[in-house]
Design a protein that fits this description.
Length: about 350
């Protein structure tokens, strides 16, 4: 399996984020990618495919803002990294939410995703990494892995959040579509719902999005990922959300994944994008599932056995000491299951 990573992705290194009402050390550190890179034995530097594939998913105004914000922040005399504090509020609906964080967040998305002078360069390299994996699959590989860092699935067409600035899974899927693949599916198995990915494809019927994640009634991102969200307009029925409770172990997770894979099979995609997050691991510091390292090869084999050519993009996972082993375990299972 080809593996891709660009060292420029390490440059984005904010110091802190606003989490649960206080500033804390930024969890999405460069060490995440470094430990994965060591565990998988290195990776190829991706080819530069330019901004056009980014603009196929993200708006030009949003891309321009990501580039301009650091300088504008500095010109305003602000110290540290750029963080928002006021937000337009759109698309709300009544939900029963049981944490004050959810009530506060109903008016934002969000203050956990700083923008630094290095963010655009890292995000750009990150996009090229995902596009390289997609191109490898389009070129005939059965699977390819993009070591994406920062992650991407919380980023929408014109917004960032959840450590994500550019949506790598969406770009990989769109690149497949633009290359002539009639239908593409995205399987998101990160602990958190990929609200940005769902949002990008919500009204489209050519990309199927299936996500297995923590129940958003209790967990970030709160306002998206509920089971009744099935897509809109031409995309009605092309979204499947399978929220699971805290403490979910392998049996329940594997059953949910089988349900998602069956739904994808009914959609009959030509190719698959896997948004893989290892924050489902039992020791992850910001998550509450209980998968073991030994579970990841089994889950990967189940996906690979379906036979769809697949680009795997890295999403979350914040237990740095175990992250490399967990990712390597997943990729080993994918190799065996092909």
């Amino acid at each position: 399996m080809q593996r891709f990573f660009d060292p420029a992705q390490l440059a984005h290194a904010p110091r802190q984020e606003l989490h649960n009402g206080a500033f804390t050390a930024y969890a999405e550190t460069p060490a995440r990618a470094e430990t994965i890179l060591r565990a998988i034995g290195g990776a190829e530097i991706p080819e530069d495919r330019g901004e056009a594939p980014i603009l196929a998913v993200h708006t030009a105004a949003y891309v321009a803002a990501l580039k301009a914000i650091p300088a504008l922040w500095q010109e305003a005399g602000r110290p540290g990294e750029a963080l928002p504090y006021a937000f337009p509020v759109v698309g709300r609906r009544p939900l029963v939410l049981n944490r004050v964080d959810a009530l506060l967040g109903a008016h934002s998305f969000d203050a956990t995703t700083p923008i630094t002078a290095e963010t655009w360069g890292a995000a750009y390299a990150n996009a090229q990494t995902a596009l390289a994996a997609a191109q490898a699959v389009l070129g005939g590989e059965r699977a390819a892995f993009a070591l994406c860092r920062p992650p991407g699935h919380h980023a929408g067409a014109d917004y960032c959040g959840g450590y994500c600035h550019l949506n790598v899974a969406a770009m990989a899927a769109q690149a497949m579509r633009d290359a002539g693949v009639e239908r593409v599916a995205i399987l998101d198995i990160d602990y958190h719902h990929g609200n940005g990915t769902q949002d990008i494809f919500d009204a489209r019927g050519d990309v199927f999005y299936a996500s297995i994640h923590a129940d958003p009634v209790r967990d970030y991102p709160f306002y998206w990922g509920h089971a009744d969200e099935r897509g809109e307009g031409a995309g009605a029925g092309a979204t499947l959300n399978l929220p699971l409770p805290h403490g979910t172990r392998m049996a329940a997770f594997r059953a949910a994944q089988a349900c998602a894979l069956d739904a994808i099979a009914a959609f009959a995609p030509g190719m698959l994008v896997v948004s893989f997050g290892a924050d489902t691991w039992e020791g992850d510091p910001i998550s509450h599932f209980a998968l073991a390292t030994a579970d990841y090869p089994v889950l990967a084999e189940d996906i690979a056995a379906r036979g769809w050519p697949a680009a795997i993009v890295m999403e979350g996972g914040y237990a740095v000491e175990a992250l490399g082993d967990n990712v390597a375990a997943f990729l080993s299972g994918f190799d065996r299951g092909r």
